[in-house]
Specification:
The N and C termini lie far apart (90 Å). By secondary structure, the chain is an alpha+beta fold. It has 3 helices and 3 strands.
Length: 132
């Protein structure tokens, strides 16, 4: 009877599942973190594009640099505004028609799994438009 109990397979699937579950959860968490980071990058790209468009059409405004930076911030409401850094180049105004204006937006990111930071860096998006 002792030999028969040694060959019993009950609980084997549960033991294998317990061994694989942490790895499976880490992979799913990594996929979710990458998806959120990509979503932030898309928001940042859209915000830089919006800021460049506003800068190109508001060159004759009193302060087109501040107007473009405000457009970048308002185009990315889901991002933490204290971490979002918009830069408009050239920063001196007025801009003559046909001059290229570049708006660059940067935002830090961190990919963490189970509270441990696996990778971190800065997302950067830049758009150049000609002043109208």
């Amino acid at each position: 009877m002792l030999v028969a109990n040694l060959r019993n397979d009950r609980g084997q699937a549960l033991a294998e599942f317990a061994l694989v579950l942490p790895l499976l959860l880490a992979v799913v968490t990594a996929i979710a973190e990458l998806g959120l980071t990509f979503n932030r990058y898309l928001m940042l790209t859209d915000a830089a594009r919006t800021g460049a468009r506003v800068a190109a059409v508001s060159a004759d405004a009193t302060d087109p640099v501040s107007t473009a930076k405000a457009a970048v911030r308002s185009a990315a409401p889901d991002l933490d505004q204290s971490k979002l850094i918009p830069v408009v180049t050239p920063s001196t105004t007025p801009w003559p028609a046909g001059t290229p204006v570049t708006v660059t937006a940067t935002y830090p990111y961190s990919i963490s799994i189970f509270g441990f930071s696996v990778y971190s860096g800065t997302l950067t998006s830049s758009t150049t438009e000609r002043v109208e």
